[in-house]
Amino acid sequence: MTWIDEQAELAKRGAAIAETPIKQVECFLKPTANRVIVQQDDIKRGSSVIYVPNDRSPRPTTGVVIAVPAHGDYDYLLHQKVLFAQFSGVALNFKSVNNWRVLQVEEIIAIFNNLDDQHELDTNVV
Fold it and tell me: CB count, 10 Å around CB of 81?
């Protein structure tokens, strides 16, 4: 059952619909054994009108798992927000999507239970 199906079932029962951490994306890739595909969170920028990129700004180290291998016990990771090391995995960029990363399951450091504004990660730390 996908996240969207679960939310539809909750809505039928009158339960509150949970918010998605990021926009749900259909993944057209199937990872091989012991790997997952993660959609990285967007880089948070200030509210200024003009954005000047800084090459030294840290990359996001959080994202949502959008694909798991067909065989294996990794279904619990699907649609979970995870934490991983800054230079782990292989970056994937396609014309239609950006910020995908292929990670080995061992490279996932933690799975977030509930993340709110109070416990948001500070990405400005070097």
Answer: 19
